[in-house]
Amino acid sequence: xxxxxxxxxxxxxxxxxxxxxxxxxxxxxxxxxxxxxxxxxxxxxxxxxxxxxxxxxxxxxxxxxxxxxxxxxxxxxxxxxxxxxxxxxxxxxxxxxxxxxxxxxxxxxxxxxxxxxxxxxxxxxxxxxxxxxxxxxxxxxxxxxxxxxxxxxxxxxxxxxxxxxxxxxxxxxxxxxxxxxxxxxxxxxxxxxxxxxxxxxxxxxxxxxxxxxxxxxxxxxxxxxxxxxxxxxxxxxxxx
Length: 240
What we know:
By secondary structure, the protein is α+β, with helices and mostly antiparallel strands. The protein has helices at about 10-20, 20-25, 30-35, 45-50, 70-95, 100-115, 120-140, 165-175, 205-220; strands at about 145-150, 160-165, 180-190, 195-200, 230-235. This is DUF6286 domain-containing protein.
């Protein structure tokens, strides 16, 4: 478990799995105290059933971790800085009585003489529009899809913790391998869905699938995710 940073993989997932048991048990205490006498609002079980996955635990929405996007910001800032410095130096040179730079005269001539429906004009406009849309998407989306937000404990609602997807997949795969009849398992964790594929060596495939679904549901709940993904299990029988 990591507030904002942490190394991906098995280590970070194991620490997150170990730290979620205490907050889950502490979250039941304040709910019972806040229920109050009858007639003064819903009881704690009713509020838990009515609440969404985003509001369980701390009573507030838990959002994804925002990416700093330092590389993208540095590249955009460097390009803007170079273009602004080049234009400023050329303007100062023109004000000092020197002729304008060749690149600026060529650019001004091209923009003045080429029609609007020219291929190069349309291509440049399309590239500029695509870059603008890409930057807007980066500015308005959180990114960091590999980190799954976890539930905040009721006694510390400002605590934010995240679980690495690869670490969560390793924990779920280890749980799947403990199901009798499963010889191999592959688990992929996404935002809304956990896809598990298992090979069955013995036992009935339907029974193995039911047991595997129950085990993965239980292990997913132990991860204390703010928005628990849905578990989808597929099994296939492998000949001995």
